[in-house]
Amino acid sequence: xxxxxxxxxxxxxxxxxxxxxxxxxxxxxxxxxxxxxxxxxxxxxxxxxxxxxxxxxxxxxxxxxxxxxxxxxxxxxxxxxxxxxxxxxxxxxxxxxxxxxxxxxxxxx
Amino acid sequence: xxxxxxxxxxxxxxxxxxxxxxxxxxxxxxxxxxxxxxxxxxxxxxxxxxxxxxxxxxxxxxxxxxxxxxxxxxxxxxxxxxxxxxxxxxxxxxxxxxxxxxxxxxxxxxxxxxxxxxxx
Lengths: 109, 120
Description:
The complex is a heterodimer. Chain A is mainly β. Helices cover 0% and strands 45% of the residues of chain A. Chain A has no helices and ten strands. Chain A has strands spanning 5-6, 9-12, 18-23, 33-37, 44-47, 61-66, 69-74, 83-90, 98-100, 104-108. In chain A, strands 2, 4, 5, 8, 9 and 10 form a six-stranded mixed β-sheet that branches. A four-stranded antiparallel β-sheet of chain A has the order 1-3-7-6, with no helix packed on it. In chain A, β8 (83-90) and β9 form a beta hairpin. By secondary structure, chain B is mostly beta strands. Helix content of chain B is 0%, strand content 52%. Chain B has strands at 3-7, 10-12, 18-25, 33-39, 45-51, 58-60, 68-73, 78-83, 92-99, 107-110, 114-118. In chain B, β5 (45-51) and β6 form a beta hairpin. The model of chain B has no long low-confidence stretch (mean pLDDT 96). Chains A and B meet through β4, β8 and β9 of A and β5 and β10 of B.
C-alpha cells in the first residue's frame, strides 16, 4: 500500500480533545510517525513508533492504532497546537519509499 | 544541540541544475541514514531520497529517479542533493532529515529548509 489518507481540516475548541486520523494499509505493518508543522517552519516529530513522544513534546500528545487507522490525539488543545499535522509510514508494495499523509490543518477555536 | 544547516537553494531555469547541502552538528552523523523531503508551495510533504550511513544503499522517489543524486561526505558531516534537469514541478522547499531507525519511518531531526524555484 502506498497511500495514507487524512482529513484535510479539523477544528477544536480551546482546552478540548481532538483526534486526527490517518488511514492506510501500510499501517497494519509499520508504526506511524506524526509531525507538526507551523507556518514557515520545518516539520517537528511529535509521535514515533505509534505512541512514543520525543523528549520535549508535551504529554497532551498521544498516538494509537486500530487496524489500518492510526490516530494522533491532543488532550486539552492549546492555541499553540494550531498547525498542520502529517502522518508517516512506509510503503509495503515492495518499493523502498517513505510515505506521508496529505496533512490535516488543525484550527484551535 | 543537534543542528542540520542547509544551503544551496535558489532560482533556476527549467532544465538547469542545483546542488543542495546539509551540514550536521551535535550528532553522530556517520551512524545514521539520511533523507531529503520536499514540500511544494501550499502542499504536503513528499519524500525524495534516502541514503545509508556508508552510502551503499540509496533509494529515490519515482518523481526524481534518474535526475537527482543523493550523496554524503561523512568526513564533513554533510549530505548533498544534486538536482539535474530540473522541472517547474520540482519547485519546493527541500528539507534534509535524519532517519532515526534507518527504516524510512521516523525522521527525528530536520534542517531549516532550502527553497528551490524552477522558473523561466
